[in-house]
Recover the amino acids of this structure.
């Protein structure tokens, strides 16, 4: 086992949720303020041009009355008629200017409000993409620790000795040792030591889960673990319901147990550790700080877009979501229902490359 791996001995799960920056809220507030002020300017322009039109209508009525009175006055009212006609012309010009002003102002403020709405929507989408990344990064970092755990514990002397010679005393000792580990690392349901035929020869919670003697050779994670090239390698299994653990949702991580605990020693067994998936993943997706107005559903989905964690607790391991990736690893778009969908692919962490999972936030769902 490498020195670097030993120094990275995993710590118990910590739900440290990164907080979105205050700048995101400031941008949203500023955009909302600009939008509100633009709407107010638009309304003022409409109101004032209507007032101008009312005044010009009064001017035209007065000019019309003046023309009528001047015609009654005959030659003596001719000069007054000229003035009334000029007043009438000025009123018409002012009315035309008012109409043009209203048309131009309302058109420009409408364009401005549309641009602001797009800017706000883009800012909102980018914020949700960042939160999607935050969720998937948190789970990646925690699962990286799981890969460190299994590779480290596969070199434990009790594990190695039992895998080499699974006699009663060795089995009892390694079960006790695995139980001590479980008491400190509460994120696991159980730890299993298997022989190369897939038989579980020891576990950490024999009084809770009767797994000793069960054969797991048919499982995908065991088959992959049996073929690992060295003790520095690991297997990260898909999230699944494990019948031997009360049908609990687990993410199983495996490493090869090698002779003498050496990374390139002869393989003599497989250590499988079962991460208690559902409560840990739930803590992450429910801890994502989406705004109350977003009405958002936060998800983790696997490479087949199967829901493996959901902030509303619905569809776990049964629902599949449709993501319009268009070749992107991250982005946002509106689906057919009008909901805003933001996503980000797993970036991996350290030696954990991820399993093609995505963090997804659906805002306005339902």
């Amino acid at each position: 086992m490498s020195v670097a791996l030993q120094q990275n001995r995993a710590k118990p799960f910590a739900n440290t949720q990164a907080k979105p920056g205050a700048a995101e809220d400031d941008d949203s507030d500023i955009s909302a303020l600009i939008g509100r002020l633009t709407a107010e300017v638009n309304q003022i322009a409409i109101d004032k041009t209507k007032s101008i039109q009312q005044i010009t209508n009064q001017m035209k009525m007065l000019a019309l009355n003046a023309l009528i009175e001047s015609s009654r006055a005959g030659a003596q009212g001719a000069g007054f008629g000229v003035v009334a006609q000029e007043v009438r012309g000025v009123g018409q010009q002012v009315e035309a200017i008012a109409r043009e002003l209203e048309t131009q102002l309302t058109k420009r403020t409408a364009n401005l409000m549309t641009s602001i709405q797009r800017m706000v929507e883009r800012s909102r989408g980018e914020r949700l993409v960042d939160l999607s990344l935050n969720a998937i990064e948190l789970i990646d970092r925690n699962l990286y620790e799981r890969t460190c755990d299994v590779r480290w514990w596969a070199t434990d002397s009790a594990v190695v000795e039992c895998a080499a010679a699974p006699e009663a005393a060795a089995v009892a000792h390694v079960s006790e040792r695995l139980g001590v580990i479980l008491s400190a690392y509460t994120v696991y349901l159980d730890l299993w030591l298997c022989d190369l035929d897939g038989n579980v020869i020891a576990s950490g919670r024999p009084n809770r889960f009767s797994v000793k003697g069960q054969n797991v050779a048919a499982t995908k994670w065991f088959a992959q673990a049996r073929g690992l090239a060295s003790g520095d390698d690991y297997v990260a299994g898909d999230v699944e319901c494990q019948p031997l653990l009360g049908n609990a949702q687990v993410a199983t991580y495996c490493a090869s147990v090698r002779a003498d605990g050496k990374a390139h020693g002869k393989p003599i067994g497989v250590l499988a550790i079962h991460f208690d998936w559902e409560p840990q993943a739930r803590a992450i997706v429910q801890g994502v700080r989406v705004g109350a107005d977003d009405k958002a559903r936060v998800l983790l989905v696997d490479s087949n877009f199967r829901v493996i964690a959901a902030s509303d607790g619905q569809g776990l391991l049964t629902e599949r979501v449709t993501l319009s990736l268009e070749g992107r690893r991250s982005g946002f778009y509106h689906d057919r229902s009008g909901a805003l969908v933001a996503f980000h692919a797993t970036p991996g962490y350290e030696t954990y490359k991820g399993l093609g999972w995505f963090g997804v936030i659906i805002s306005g769902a339902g």
About this structure: Helices lie at 3-7, 22-73, 78-153, 157-164, 168-184, 220-226, 277-287.
